[in-house]
Amino acid sequence: MYAPSMSTYPARTEPQTIFFLGATGYLGSVVLAQLAEQAPQHKVVVLLRPGGSSVSTTTSPVPGAASVQEKLNCLKLIHPNIVGVVEGSLDDKEAIAKACEEVDLVLNCASSDHLDSVEATLEGLERNSAAHPGRPPIYIHVSGCGILSDNARGEFKKAEDIPEYSDIGFDLKSSVPQTNMHLPSDIPIFEAGIREKNPIRSLILFPGQIYGIATAGGQPTTLWIRIFLSMARAGGFVGTWGPGHNSMNNIHVVDVASATTLLVLRAIAGTAPEGKDGIYFCGSMERKVPYREWTELMGNILYEKGYIKEKGTRPLAETIVEPLGHYGWSLLGGNQFARPERLATLGWEPVETAKQDMMASLPLMIEQALSEVDWVPTVQV
């Protein structure tokens, strides 16, 4: 029977300062709301850049806020204990590194593949660790199950021929093909978490296909819906990488947020496995929906609403998929099967996923995403 190895560091009972990257985003805004509800004593510093990325609504005011101050005002409605702002983007390495030197914990919900910001974070945390011997800082990074891709290129495979990975005993360097997505960012974090000199306390979360509408006030729609909507607008139909038989674990955004929040609180308490054991898959064991199935529903919805001329789904043309190269084929054309066993040992369950499955949620997700863009239906059905 698996016995989780907990942190070797004592619980931190005093309020902690958390540097939060991605607090305005789809997942990040929900995590921010949960932290405000469950542990409001912890102080938060946020990375914010000027400029709106979408439109503001009554329920999601943050995406359309133009200035840093406007965004901060919106975020303080979600979490009143925001005590500082680092003004800039993920490309501002010096600002990120300096902030990481001065906090107790860094939480990155912003981007799983922005290597410059990961390197800046690790640089700052290494200096932080050197300045506080015996009290290394904590780094919780949200990656993705793209690391598990079998690179099937959308072709049909029997379920028994698709590898399914447990996060217990999983090795980032040997368990999966090293060309898979996210690993260039994940492996340096993992290595920093197992070194002896100036270590950091690393925990990496790997969600599956995140769905649902985020209602905390930040970006309400998941990235993959926005990507496929954009491609449908450009090409006139909803398509797949290859035949689209590939699938992955799905998980509601509220459940990913609850897993992230749990890791933050358990890491502070010293009761979460970390370092070599700080690998956490996050997904439900509900039915995995093949890409060709959910893209068909998406295509039918957009067709019936008059946005595109072709219903259903079919493989995307090479001119569309090839510019994304291996990234697209690995991430959007591969099977990614995970068993989130380590989170289960901490008592986590995908509660919201059991209430709202992905296919039932898809029409509302599409409706929400359409409300964020200036796309007018012009096709007579």
TrEMBL record:
GO molecular function: aldehyde dehydrogenase (NAD+) activity
Protein name per its UniProtKB record: NmrA-like domain-containing protein
Source lineage: Eukaryota, Fungi, Dikarya, Basidiomycota, Agaricomycotina
Gene Ontology terms: cellular component: cytoplasm
Residues of the NmrA-like domain: 16-111
InterPro entries (alphabetical): NAD(P)-bd_dom_sf, NAD(P)-dependent_oxidoreduct, NmrA-like
Pfam families on file: NmrA
Entry-linked SUPFAM superfamilies: NAD(P)-binding Rossmann-fold domains
Highest rank taxon of the organism: Eukaryota
